[in-house]
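# step 3/5: fold
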Amino acid sequence: LEADGKQLKFAMNGGIYLPEDHSPEGLFIDNGNIIKPLNTKVDSGNFYWQPNGVFYINNKEEAFICKTENFVSSMDIKYATQSGPMLVIDSKIHPAFSPFSKNLNIRNGVGVTPEGKLIFAISESPVNFYDFALFFRDYLNCPDALYLDGAISDMYYEGSLGINLQKNKSEGKF
């Protein structure tokens, strides 16, 4: 970015990558170019936990999140990434999530408010999927939200220290 006279303002890891070649597990569109097509394969793991979804930004810079099965590729999509599971779907928490789950992890995700405001969030401490989804729905007012990553979650915003939360859980606050 510096070579182009630009400065990084925000970054968050997201998406699942294949161990063989580190390519995206699912759909990835960068600046209108499809790098990896939509993945509708049935398998195990967070990415494949149905419904999974797609976060995308069109050429008008409007942000959307939808279930993978509802995604329609078009020429006006500028950026997209596929991940899973969906956290919140039409204002409902993913039906498979339990408030009593002991599956705790650092988590990050993305949501879009009814006004079209894009919100990225990362937990400061391990949480289960249900509580993370509840945060997006009830606190951030996102009728749709998508899980992006877990244990290796990290976020940078201009002026932050870029702390790796996995290594520095007690210090990492954003």
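# step 4/5: annotate
Residues 159 and 167 are 20 Å apart (CA to CA).
# step 5/5: archive (pending)
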